Amino acid sequence: MTWSRLSTLFFAGVIGIAVIGYFVGLADGVPKATGIGEGIGRLGEHPTSLSAAVKVIPALRYAEIAGTAMGPTDAFQAAAKELPTSPYNLFAEIKLSATDKASSSEMRASRRAFNGAPPIIPHAVQNTTDAACYACHSNGMRMGELKASVMSHTFLANCTQCHAPPPPVPFQDADLSVDSTFVGLPAPTSGKRAFPGAPPTIPHSQWMREKCEACHGGPNGWAGMESTHPWRTNCTQCHAPSAKLDQATPADLIPMLPPLEIVGR
Ligand code: HEC
Ligand code: HEC
Ligand code: HEC
Ligand code: HEC
Description:
There is one protein chain. This protein has helices at about 1-30, 60-65, 100-110, 130-135, 215; strands at about 140-145, 145. With about 260 residues, it is mostly helical. It has a domain at about 115-160. It has a two-stranded antiparallel sheet. A hairpin with a 2-residue loop joins strand 1 and strand 2 (about 145). Bound molecules: heme C (4 copies). One heme C binds near residues 228 and 239.
């Protein structure tokens, strides 16, 4: 008898607590017509002070967003005191000198069997792996007065299949010339222009010369051969490629479909 009385009281207590909890939950979480929770102010009004009890994150005005650290990365706010600057000034005025151009042309010619041939390696080579060559020749490494020329072509593996290293000791003085009747095209000195001041056409083929800036510009060009406008990147927008030297097949040689024969009825 005592046990059934006690269990009635116990379950009455449990039901009572559940009912109270239900109403407390409703009072806490249900949005009111004036806004969410206490202390936010009326709808449309920006909150000025929020009590710690309020569980909503205050919305910001658009104007405030830029100057407010927010979210999980709020500790990463950009405070670049000094942006990295390029050691090369792309917009510095470039004065071309005819003597520089002549001496550059002469040095280039001395290292090539003919214009467009792969230049020989003019220095001793200890390590003939691509990675070793690429370390100096990808970005124009500077060593004192010397500058490693930038590759004018895209990365091609096995550099020494085309670029001949100097002969090994004791064969440096051996005469390696071979009689040949081959005569290469002469190196160009300038491109044709439609009128003075017009962009010159490209007087050489673009084969193995995809990287124009390797010879003509920026920090890596050959002295006297730089373009005065290294910041313009789409070179062939203005400089017309040579159809003849790029070995494009002349249109009248391409065996197109025979002309249509229209037979009148
Ligand atoms: C330690 C840096 C370094 C390494 C490694 C190196 N070179 Fe050079 N290379 C130079 C420098 C500097 C010059 C310019 C020398 C000069 O102008 O007298 C040069 C010049 C050249 C040239 C002549 C370019 C021209 O247009 O006249 C070629 C070709 C060349 N190197 C190919 C190679 C190849 C292939 C390798 C790998 C087997 C290689 N180099 C490894 C620094 C390097
Ligand atoms: C398939 C042959 C071939 C391979 C492989 C090759 N090159 Fe060349 N390279 C050439 C030719 C051809 C030229 C000359 C382009 C011209 O003057 O028209 C050249 C030009 C160059 C130049 C001189 C650019 C200038 O200023 O005139 C350098 C430096 C050079 N190559 C470095 C390398 C390096 C480093 C490698 C290996 C990662 C390599 N080449 C692989 C054929 C090759
Ligand atoms: C391997 C080196 C090399 C590369 C790479 C190269 N050129 Fe040249 N270019 C020369 C040489 C050498 C000349 C003749 C000397 C001169 O006029 O500066 C020349 C001449 C020119 C001229 C005529 C300049 C004048 O004064 O009349 C134009 C335009 C030109 N090149 C455009 C280009 C463009 C565009 C590219 C890239 C698709 C390119 N070149 C890539 C070596 C190069
Ligand atoms: C918006 C058009 C335009 C673009 C893009 C352009 N050039 Fe030129 N370029 C010219 C004109 C115009 C001249 C003639 C300038 C003169 O005679 O004063 C010229 C001249 C040159 C010359 C002869 C030397 C000089 O500066 O007078 C070279 C070499 C050259 N350009 C190379 C290049 C290369 C390499 C690129 C790409 C990096 C390039 N150009 C992009 C218009 C352009």
